[in-house]
Amino acid sequence: MVADRSPRFATLAVHGGGADAPTKETVEQRVALLEGGSAVVAAAGGVPLPVTALQPLMRPGDQVIVARQGASRALAEIGRPFAAFGWEVQWADIDELASFERAVSPKSQAILVASVAAAGEVADIAALAAVAKRAQVPLIVDNSIPTPVLCRPIEHGADIVIHSDLRFLSGEAGAGGFIVDGGRFNWLGPRRYPVMSEKRAEHGGASLAEAVGNFAYAAACRMFAGDGPPPFSPEHLAAQLATVPARMARHAQNARAVADHLARHESTLSVSYAGLSGDRHHALAQKYCPDGPGAVITFAVEGGEERSAALCDALELIAPEVATSAARSSILRRDETGTLALSIGLEDPADIMADLEHALGDS
Known about the structure:
The protein has 17 helices and eleven strands. The protein has helices at residues 10-13, 24-35, 48-54, 73-76, 79-82, 97-103, 125-135, 147-150, 167-170, 194-197, 208-212, 216-225, 234-241, 244-264, 282-288, 304-314, 349-362, and strands at 39-44, 63-68, 88-93, 108-114, 139-142, 160-163, 176-181, 268-272, 296-301, 330-333, 340-343. The longest helix is centred in the last third of the chain and has 21 residues, at 244-264. The radius of gyration is 21 Å and the shape is globular.
């Protein structure tokens, strides 16, 4: 479960040296290597994933500070399951660091953000890590969109990384997710975390943090998530991890080309993609995702919701829904304003742009 090799070998090691098929533990080790963490726990993805990640940290009445971003569904809907546990959500503005400082209280147990959100915002991970350190709470970063190929939050101070959505990491939609223990947080510090810090008979009178060291948090997550069969095929996912560097490089290259094209189009009112030099999060993208902030572009066209719907209907190559495979470009209407979220696949970028041109002309 513990990562002990350089991340550059992570995608090669999935093939192994023997005849045994990859296991859940094999995949967890590879993800730990890719993210630079001490250990990883596979768990159910989507909305349940942040709940599992927070269970070792939270008690009834405790609070988590969450960035208000156009993030994944798991973060956008995070308040719903928390009520059952008696947890509170304190929202903060991703573009205003001071809002995170103001949100800190004695009840705060963690800060949770997306490295790159679906609406294009890029988190200032190092600055948020400094806020978390002053508050003596862990910074949790959802790295689903850029994957560790394009962004490595632990290197910038994140304590925990989660993947609530495996569409880009695995290449296709799936039920699984991952929780990555950065292995650096002091669970015995002033802000107590009983699951990791209380001494227990089953650990020989020691605390979990004392018993297992730098993967105490991962061990605690394992207790809450259970150690049953994984919600994915280990053999399939291991093979997919071997191609993730090449796939994410192509996703990012295609997305930049399409975003440039949309930004110049006369029918486009706005484009949000941090890879564009004029984007308000471009400087942060350059710092944290120098090879590109991933494959998701949001944009709006003249004519609002009605034209957006017509555009989606006119598309031929691009799927007018979230495609099962990340390899295929897909488009989704995000809200009643007509804003569109475009997930760029691995097709020839000229074909993607031609499909958009055709649809913009017909809509």
